[in-house]
Amino acid sequence: xxxxxxxxxxxxxxxxxxxxxxxxxxxxxxxxxxxxxxxxxxxxxxxxxxxxxxxxxxxxxxxxxxxxxxxxxxxxxxxxxxxxxxxxxxxxxxxxxxxxxxxxxxxxxxxxxxxxxxxxxxxxxxxxxxxxxxxxxxxxxxxxxxxxxxxxxxxxxxxxxxxxxxxxxxxxxxxxxxxxxxxxxxxxxxxxxxxxxxxxxxxxxxxxxxxxxxxxxxxxxxxxxxxxxxxxxxxxxxxxxxxxxxxxxxxxxxxxxxxxxxxxxxxxxxxxxxxxxxxxxxxxxxxxxxxxxxxx
Length: 296
Prior knowledge:
By secondary structure, the chain is of the alpha/beta class. The protein has 11 helices and 14 strands. The N and C termini lie far apart (48 Å).
């Protein structure tokens, strides 16, 4: 694996978990996947340390203003901007992470390939390729809901909307041995998802395409969908409620995530208005994952 280029970093501290989650949510809304990798960890005395790695040097004034809006001026004053020298820092971090189990699925890196139990479906993701390794609560929530769905249902037309590294598309393809359409607005994510699918011997099943929303013709060709997985963000999920509903088969199931638990009610309301009813709600590390059924 080649080294990543030098990256710009912002590090700061906030006083509470609630403030840390709000900061992460706001920064994630502003800096799309691929533009920044954001992490928050609990430090001593209840303090939360937030670190953001940027693909390109950020507008420092904008970052300070966003942190001020979310956590106050004192937190913004603690921001330190610097440059991380070129090295494979993501891979180095991944080596300290253990495989992530989620029902029948296990997300792991190359170094943990041998640790996947024979009765589980391994999904190998190299974090150096893109942000999104399966260690986030939203990814695990989606995989747990997918595992739950597949115990009683076998969808044939599956969509992974906003695929990122392709974790969910690969999981569905390997479990079902069916074709899965995967889309992302970021061309790099599309390439990464297809490469990860090949790495997981699912390249012949996963078709990754660049698309914004449901605009590409492949959606009409591959649908209507029996199952949609969308691990994005709360605002895009609300905006996609109507076009998604138009691409669903009767009784289709939808798994949504990427939203903080306080945001879940508004997302549920947006989809309920389009005829989708909530079936299951998982809460992991302050994030919500939803299972909805098309009743319209």
